[in-house]
Design goal:
Shape: elongated
Largest sheet: 7 strands, parallel
CATH superfamily of the largest domain: NAD(P)-binding Rossmann-like Domain
Oligomer: single chain
CATH topology of the largest domain: Rossmann fold
Strand order of the largest sheet: 8-7-6-9-10-11-12
Structural class: alpha/beta
Number of domains: 2
Amino acid sequence: MTAPDTLPVIPFVSEAEGGERRAWQSALPEALSRIGIVKPFEELTAAEKDTARVAIVANPDPTKVAELKNLEWVQSLWAGVERLAADLPVDGPQIVRLMDPQMADTMSEAVLAWTLYLHRDMPIYAAQQKRKHWQQRELKLPSEQTIGVLGLGKLGQAAAQRLADNGFNVIGWSRSPKSIDNLDCQSGPDGFDIVLKMADILVLLMPLTSETRGLIGSKELQKCRKSVKLINFARGPILQDAALLEALESGQVEHAVLDVFDEEPLPEDHPYWDQENVTVLPHISAPTITSTACTIVASNLKIYFETGTIPKSVDRMKGY
């Protein structure tokens, strides 16, 4: 076995909230104990910064990453890397997303849970309780509800399949054509409009790119069915806040479940907090599971140090 003092130093660069950062600082050194020495950026020597070839990052300060001048790649602990891709130079280190199969299962569970929340009219019953109002609503079958899933990457596919397995009529959309067993797949601008017009509940699961930023605005919401319900588990900037608030006010959108926002935490003065027809969640739809993530990171770095192979990295032109 390689002697501990000959193991490479692996910088850990993170500006994540204190509790999350401390959890990683505890779990990563143990998971990678036979592969490398994980050290917080602040504890690195000048020589260690110069010799680092790979770093593990979670919401890093890009100026700190830039100090690691000989990095070949960074292993993100998050699936979303749009900020990292925007902050790091295109000719800088390659960016590897955390591709955790558990995350797809966790996200699909969340999509199913909150789809059922809307399908079973739970927001309406909660509002009735506040008014001490007793009224039953007609219950539709899942097969009578069309769920539109915008984004058919790994998370979107898993969510769409779980919804279909629970009896919902599911139609999915992706930018480029895809063929998925037992799923109605639409693509391109025409397919996008088809999904908007058909969905009773619209689920946003696409990545944030230059093409999807602000994608859902007034024009798109007006194409939807009257009283459409919406779930955003993608990224906040994909959905235009002013347009959604207007659609909620007019009744074009009946209820919105929002887990992601332009600014997080959501500011206390944001109007979403006081909207009865908005459910605000603190970005909890698919949190990274530390144990499974550490296993994946350890495997990626072990292969790299043994063979020089870098895992599949982000396409900087696409942003994901």
